[in-house]
Amino acid sequence: MSTDLGLPRFAPRGVGHLRGERSFPAAARDALADSQLRRNLGHATSTIRAKRAAVVAERADWEELRAAGEAIKAATMARLDEHLERLEAEVTRRGGAVHWARDAEEANAIVTRLVAATGSREVVKVKSMATREIGLNEALAAAGVDTQETDLAELIVQLGGDLPSHILVPAIHRNRAEIREIFLREMPGVDPALTDEPRRLAMAARSYLRERFLRAEVAISGANFGVAETGSLLVVESEGNGRMCLTLPRTLITVMGIEKVVPSWADLEVFLQLLPRSSTGERMNPYTSVWTGVTPGDGPAEVHLVLLDNGRTATLADDVGRAALHCIKCSACLNVCPVYERTGGHAYGSVYPGPIGAVLSPQLTGVEDNASLPFASSLCGACYEVCPVRIDIPSLLVRLRAQHVEARREASRVPSAEAVAMAAAAWTMADPRRFAAAEKASRLGRVFGRRSGQLTTLPPPLSAWTAGRDAPRPPAETFREWWARERG
Taking the CB of residue 224, how many other CB atoms lie within 10 A of it? Predict the structure, then answer.
C-alpha cells in the first residue's frame, strides 16, 4: 500500500477519546472536591517520582542520553515518510501485513474487519494508548466482539466501568480497598474472602485472565516502538500479560501511531535506557517483547500492523508543534505536574492527560476542540526538566494559548474583556504619568485583604482573575515614592 495518507486532517469528532465533554476548569473543580482522589494521586505520584530520581541519578550521562533521544526524534520526524515506507517493506517481507489508517474511523474499521475474518467473537488486548485514543473497544463491542483488557490496571478500569487516569498507571486514582470492591462486584468466581493485599489481588486477576489467554484466537496490541531497519515491533511492560497476548493467539493485530517508528536498533538502544527510568523508575523493563513478521511454528500465524495517523500529519506540518510527537509516553511529566497531581487524568477529557496531553491533544484535534487544555498548567517548567527527550512543553503551551486567543479574535468582532483589559494596560503603561497615577490608584485595593495580605476576591471584571488565584495586597508605598524618599 502507499504511504500517501492524503492532506493532513484532524482526528474526527464523535469517535475515540481525545475530546472531553466539559472544559478542563469545570471538570477539575469536581476532581479537586474529591479528597480521596487527591490522596491517591499524591501518594502514587510521589512514590514514582522518588523511584525515578534514584535511578536517573545513577547515570552520569543522563543529560547526554536526553539530548541523543531528542536528536533522534527530530531527525526521524524530518524523514518520517522514508522510515515508514521502510518499516512497511520490512514487515511485508517477513510475512506481515501493513494497513494505513487516516483516522480513528478507518483504523477501527480495519481492525473490526480483520477480527471478523477470523470468525472470533473475543479478543485479548495488550495495554495500548493508541487503541484507547481511537475508541477501538467501543467499535469492537458494536460489532459484537468482546474485548478483554489484560494489563492489571486496564483490567481494573474496565471492570469498574471507568476510564484511564494516567498514561502509565491507568488506575492510579484507585486505592487497594476500591480495587478489592471492584473485583468482588465484577469478577466472576472471585473468592468472597478476598482481601486488599496486593498479592491476593494479583492472584485473583491472574486466575481470571488465565482462561482468557488460553482460549483466545486473536490479540490486539499497541507498540512502544517500530524498528524500520528490520520491520520489528516492540512492547515493554512490567507484568508479562502482554507477552501472553503476543505469543499465544493465532492472529496478532497491532495499532501503532506513525510517530512511534525509529530508524534502527542503534536508535532503539537510546530509548530503552530512557524509557524505563523515566516511567517506572527501573533500570530496564521486566518484559521487553519483540516480534518480526511471521515465523512458522512460533507465535502468531498472522501478523497485522495498522499505522495510525489521526491528526499526526497535521501536527507534523507544524515545524514547532511537531515536537509533541517526540513523546515516548513515559508519563514522567504527569508525575511532577502540580496540576495533574491535584486533578488526576479524567479532568483533561483525553486519553492523554497531564502536560503532554495538554499540548498533544489540541494538536491532534485542532486547538479549538481542546481550547482549555493549554491553560491547564502553571508553566512551572518541571515537565521539561524530566522529559527524557527534552520536549519544551511550557513553550508549546504558551504557543497554543496564543493560537487560541488569535482564533477567538478572528471569530468575533467584539473584543473580549481580556482584550479590553490588555489594551487599557498597554495604554496606561505607555506613558510615565499615566503609569504613576495608576500606581497610586492601586492603593485603593488595600481595603481588601487586610487580614490575609492577599486579595482573594475582586469586583468584576477582575473577579475572573481572583476566581482561580490570589493577588498580593498592594503596598502602602509605590516604588516611585520609595525611590524618591530613599534616593532623592
Answer: 25
Structural domain boundaries enclosing 285: 24-313
Q: State residue 1's pLDDT score.
A: 44
Long-range contacts of 81-84 (CB under 8 A, 24+ apart): 81/3, 83/228, 83/261, 83/262, 83/263, 84/3, 84/228, 84/258, 84/261, 84/307
The CATH number of the domain where 73 resides is what? 3.40.50.10420
pTM above 0.85, yes or no: yes
- Whether omega for the bond prior to residue 461 falls within 30 degrees of 0, making it cis, is yes
pLDDT digits (tens, 9 = 90+) for 437-473: 988 888 877 777 677 778 777 777 777 777 777 778 8
Residue 327 lies in a domain: no
Q: Give CA–CA dist 189/292, Å, rounded.
A: 38
Query: Are 43 and 175 found together in one domain?
Result: yes
The residue type found at 227 is V
Question: What secondary structure does DSSP assign to 3-54, as a single string?
Answer: ----S--PPPTTSSSSS-SS-HHHHHHHHHT-HHHHHHHHHHHHHHHHHHHH
Does residue 359 lie within any of the structural domains?
A: no
Neighbour tally for 59: CB within 10 Å: 14
Domain membership of residue 337 (yes or no) is: no
Q: What is the mean pLDDT of residues 195-207?
A: 95
Q: Alpha helices of 197-236 — where are they, by DSSP H?
A: 198-215
Q: How far is CA 141 from CA 115, 117, 132, 165, 197, in A?
A: 12, 16, 13, 22, 33
Residue 179 corresponds to which cell in the numbers above? Answer: 480495587
Residue 2 clears pLDDT 60, i.e. is over it: no
- Where does a domain end: 284, 313, 342? 313
User: 59 with 194, same domain?
Assistant: yes
Residue 438 lies in a domain: yes
**Helix or strand or coil: residue 154?**
helix
Q: Of the residues 313, 335, 353, which one is the last residue of a structural domain? A: 313
- Using one digit for the tens of pLDDT, what is the confidence trace for 66-115? 999 999 999 999 999 999 999 999 999 999 999 999 999 999 999 999 99
The pLDDT, as a whole number, for residue 444 is 79
What is the grid cell recorded at 298? 512460533
pLDDT tens per residue, range 85-97: 999 999 999 999 9
Summarised one tens digit per residue, pLDDT across range 280-292 is 999 999 999 999 9
CA–CA gap between residue 425 and residue 277 (Å, rounded): 47
Q: How many domains does the chain have?
A: 2
